[in-house]
Amino acid sequence: MGDWGSKPRENDEAADWFHKLWKYSDFSIVINEIQNFRPEEEKYDSFRAACYVLQSFGNPYMWPSKHRELLRELLDTSIGILEKMIDSPGEAWGFLDMWGNDPKVIVAVKQQIGELRMRRSELAPK
Q1: The domain containing residue 25 runs over which residues?
Q2: I need a labelling partner for 125 at 20 to 30 A (CA). Which of 30, 61, 68, 102 fits?
Q3: Quick check: helix, strand or coil at residue 67?
């Protein structure tokens, strides 16, 4: 894995993922990455990249209307998975091991969680 920083966009896997997203310009790529995440596949950086798009565009005014009904679920799912990435519930979750328990990565993931929670708070109550 090539990485040059702790942010969700600062590694080779994320760069490849973003290339695919913009090549096809399809938000279903974001949705599929979040909904189909499996820790044993170790695609953590692709997941974080998808979460970065969600935290950037995940409010009702910017999110594609054809996927609006999924927004709350995607935010909740993303927050839950990111929390597990830095507070592992078991051996299947190797994110921190892959990053050598780098404190900067933990801070970056916590920032993502905070921004996704902010997006979640922008949604109208159910």
Answers
A1: 12-121
A2: 30
A3: helix
In a domain, 53, yes or no: yes
Give the whole-angstrom CA distance, residue 52 versus residue 50: 5
Each residue's pLDDT tens digit, 2-32: 666 777 776 787 888 888 888 888 899 999 9
Q: Residue 3 phi/psi, 5° resolution?
A: -135, 150
Alpha carbon 26 to chain centroid distance? 16
pTM: predicted TM-score of the whole model, two decimal places: 0.89
**Overall number of domains in the chain:** 1
126: burial class by Cβ within 10 Å (0-12, 13-18, 19+)?
A: exposed
Residue 2 lies in a domain: no
